[in-house]
Design brief:
It is a single chain. Helices cover about 70% and strands about 0% of the residues. The protein is an all-alpha fold and about 220 residues long. It folds into two domains: about 50 residues, Arc Repressor Mutant, subunit A; about 150 residues.
Length: about 220
């Protein structure tokens, strides 16, 4: 790797780590392999990213950012008014369809989640904390639970889903209803709003291809 500024070096390490994780998975993607690919001492990787979980966390944050942008664009292109529930449904549908249609992303992401890497990540993703908050403000709901509690439920749900996920789940109505309604129900959102926006999300995502996603 040619000499770069600190920021450039960090970005190059993160970019190459994504390639490594997609090729080898989270479990087999090591600092040693990453250093060899970049032609640097693995200690340099450790200097910028203290441990593998930290490096993978930033890769997953980028993945979530890409899917959130895709959800926002899909809603806007179809002239739908914004609502937190619709955004949550579409984002969830895109999330699981990306995993279903991109085996290398699923392997990396599921290994990372099952290893416990997700435990402190959700609230570090700006759009997720904002979405939790918007459920209360947009629908004028009393805040029964702190964000940390909702986060714990969301994390537990995602870990269990990744332990048993199969690609066909992403297109199964029972699975979709389950993953799209658990958090909204927890914050106290009306069931008819949940149902309507899940159906709207399914319509927006119907026939969309999420293969080859770059993050």
């Amino acid at each position: 790797m040619r000499r770069e500024s600190g920021t450039d070096t960090r970005d190059l390490i993160l970019k190459e780590s994504k390639r490594l994780f997609l090729e080898k998975g989270y479990n087999k993607g090591t600092f040693r392999l990453l250093g060899a690919r970049l032609d640097v001492n693995p200690a340099l990787v450790s200097y910028y990213f203290s441990e593998k979980k930290t490096l993978a966390k930033y890769a997953v944050i980028d993945l979530f950012g890409v899917q959130a942008a895709m959800a926002k664009k899909l809603i806007e292109e179809n002239a739908r008014d914004y609502s937190p529930m619709l955004s949550y449904a579409v984002d969830s549908l895109i999330h699981y369809r990306i995993l279903a249609q991109n085996p290398e992303i699923f392997r990396f992401y599921s290994e990372f989640i099952i290893s416990g890497g997700i435990d402190d990540i959700f609230l570090q993703i700006p759009n997720i904390r904002q979405l939790y908050s918007s459920f209360y403000t947009f629908y004028h709901l009393p805040m029964k639970y702190p964000f940390e509690y909702i986060h714990a439920v969301d994390v537990g749900l995602e870990r269990q889903v990744m332990l048993h996920f199969e690609p066909e789940n992403a297109f199964d109505d029972v699975f979709i209803d389950f993953v799209c309604r658990t958090v909204p129900q927890l914050v106290g959102l009306n069931g008819s709003i949940i149902d309507n926006e899940i159906e709207a999300g399914k319509t927006l995502c119907r026939g969309k291809d999420f293969k080859g996603i770059i993050f």
